[in-house]
Amino acid sequence: MLLLLYIGVASAQRMGVWAVAFYNLENLFDTVDDPDNPGDDEFLPNGPYHWTEDKYEQKLSNMARVISGLAREHCPVGPALIGISEIENERVVADLVARPELAQMGLKYVHYSSPDRRGIDVALLYNPRLFKLVSSHPYPFVMPDQPKFRSRDQLLVSGIMAGEPVSIIVNHWPSRYGGDKSKPSRAAAAAICKHIADSVCAADPRNKVIIVGDLNDDPSDESCAEVLGAARRIKDVKPGGYFNATWPLFDKGIGSLCYQDSWCLYDQQIISANFLNDKSGQTLRFWKTEVYNRDFLTNPSGKRKGYPLRSFDGTVWQNGYSDHFPTITYFIKQLK
Question: Tens digit of pLDDT for each residue in 96-114?
Fold first, then answer.
């Protein structure tokens, strides 16, 4: 949290700032073969990526460097909450928060194993000085007409931030593999997410909900705009509805990943309507959202110039970061 001078309608006010981030870590696997997880076979020393302990340690260091720098312009201690995806297991999360680059932040985490066919999960990192954990629960992905389809769980974590009840849902929706045939899977994921968020708000209308994740769709796609119902503009948000805080960025051509020279904004931040209602500053409310597309995260040259600088080019190690940029949403509240 940071104090800033905010000029209100009547007078200057001291405001606190809280940040919530999301980052797809792009295949953060350890080097140990898990016989119950065939998805990790590519990331072993004898696999196509020749995934060694040295590369694993460097990947952890690179991810920690990014996470340790998130939101620092406005929040000197970093984000209160950081959703992450494409992690193999609890070990890699524990190794990540223990890195020297992150250790001083004192981050804790919430993780559950998913039955995903690729063997990857989502998790939440949180700063216990800024967020008091109350409860957590994983929600499995289910498609009624395809009961054997496996994907990542959706992670609901509830707690207290800025003295108010806040819940976050961390997502990594099914991929676009298969083209248009994959759309129903993301529509199903959106329906699950909406059910979770609606249930939280119905149980306690004061509870504010943040939906983050790699949704494998853009804000304007059916899963987000129609099934989840995340509005494009604040003025279009209905009571009990949701605002897609990343949609205005997408309209400006800003993306979090690039595919065939076209920018996509899959790494989304969506908030409940009660983040938008109070203009007095007395309660926690939405300020702004950004894509954290800093120069050091960007490929400086070659056919992917300007793209996120990822760990591998094909199977060739290039000591980068991720094929996604992080996203951050900031919230403000008047300080007493």
Answer: 999 999 999 999 999 999 9
Distance of CA 134 to the CA centre of its chain: 20
Residue 336: CA count within 13 A, CB half-sphere? 4
Helices (H), 121-270: 183-203, 222, 247-251
CATH number of the domain to which 222 belongs: 3.60.10.10
pLDDT one-digit tens code per residue, 151-161: 999 999 999 99
Reported as half-sphere exposure (CB side, CA atoms, 13 A), residue 31 has a value of 14
d(C-alpha 59, C-alpha 92), whole Å: 11
Record the tokens describing residue 105, joined without a space: 């932040």
0.85 exceeded by the pTM? Answer: yes
Residues spanned by the domain of 220: 2-334
CB-based contact 241:273 (threshold 8 Å): yes
Strand partners, 161: 131, 164
DSSP 237: P
Total structural domains in the chain?
Answer: 1
Q: What is the pLDDT of residues 176-186, one digit of tens each?
A: 988 888 999 99
